[in-house]
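DM from R.C. (forwarded with permission)

"hey, sorry to bug you on a friday — could you get me a structure for this? deadline for the figure draft is monday and I only need the backbone to look sensible"
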Amino acid sequence: MSAPVPLLPPPAERLTVWGRLRDRMLLDPDWSRVVRWLAPLVITALAAVLRLANLAHPHTLAFDETYYVKDAWSLWVLGYEGSWGDGANEAFLTGDTSALGETGSFVVHPPLGKWIIALGMGLFGAGNSAAWRLMVALVGTATVLLVYFVAKELTRSIVVASVAGLLLAIDGLSIVMSRIGLLDGILTFFLLLGFWFVLLDRRRSIPLVEYADGGKLWGRVVWRRPWVIAAGVALGAATAVKWSGLYAVAGFGIYLVVTDALARRRAGVAFWPMDAVARQGAASFLLLVPAAALTYLASWTGWLLTAGGYDRQSDADPLVALWKYHEAIYAFHVGLDSGHPYASPAWQWPFLIRPTAVWVGDDKSCGSDHCMSVISTVPNPLIWYAGVAAAIYLLYRFVRGLIDRTPMPWTYGLSLVGLAITYVPWLLYPERTIFQFYTVVMVPFLVLALVLALGDIAGRRDDPLYRRQAGERTVLVFLIVVVLVSAFFYPVWTGMNVPYDFWLIHNWMPTWV
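My reply, with the result:
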């Protein structure tokens, strides 16, 4: 006679200390209401402090601010990017913008990001270095809140969403690109916003197909997809900041077709591939692409409605003139191969070989010691390398699931789609001059991959108690170390004046100097 199977202890007894605390916070209505509001507010406040504190430093045009900030002011006063005369940078620091001429200047990025930068200067003046970075800092702070919402929508977990928001809030690359008047932080926000809208569409549209089309030759074509239109607007705005947003339009468009096809197959639709491509795919295209195109075109309104922009008079039809201008911009981008000491091809990015020093201050005295003031785009190394490892882990789980034909969390695939869209296209341009800080658009997706992997490490509710205790402690220790590393690196993310030896120990690789 076999021994009796022991009864499982009550659920509360099978939980770890953290599990009981979590259940009290999230299952008790009063606690749940407080946590639901307090968690994103605290994380966003932390992000704001790290991005807005001493924002005016350094009071100089750092790195490519010399282009984008002055172009932003030109858009504000002329409606298009004008040319600047000699000594413009030095005069600009004092608020003197008299070096701006009305002759159109050839610029190679669309205007939306510069219009956003211009809002801060329109409020507080051109000579205020905090003003020309203000909107970028606010957008960077909003990106942290947005990654919280994305993670919560992905996992339905306030805890996971809070960890995702915290990691992005304290990551160095995100902090630096929120404190400098460049375009990439703004691009990141719109790409992540489009990702969120695609995620919201998936939650609402896939069930309409799966539960309504069983046993049919053709599935239902869903036209009422407002989140796809919203995604088109967001991704069109991303393209209106930098052309790399086009990759996201194409990538998420393909994702919509693939997920629609799989939903039709699960629903038993006979001709599901053709149905997804020719019927629902055409509808999704008409919802996504025109919204993106109109948003992009609207960003050029200032150039279209004025007469002085570069190449504006090349044709009597302003749209034809704009097309010719775009041909010139494209020729510039594909031929950009000039050397730069901080250039970093995309194959180097996962290894974090060459971060960019966007500003190096004058040497100053720290008593008898030599000092350094640097703003480096090195991310928190633990977040970065752990995020890359997590992405590889998710890819392995995803491929293994396909081979074994075992169901996998769809969240794994969607996070990998975001990473693929923001990274893989750059591998196609090995000779082009590009920089490590372009990866700021990847960081939110690396963070999402990381929190999904950390969730697997922490364990599930039905795992043995010892397994969950070990997993939760491992995750907690990792998060504590990550916070300490961010505190250690914060001086070189914000240009603080520090002793030379202190700066030197932050360069974990010789190529970080």
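R.C.: lifesaver. The chain has 20 helices and six strands.
me: no worries. Residues 1-13 have pLDDT under 50 and may be disordered.
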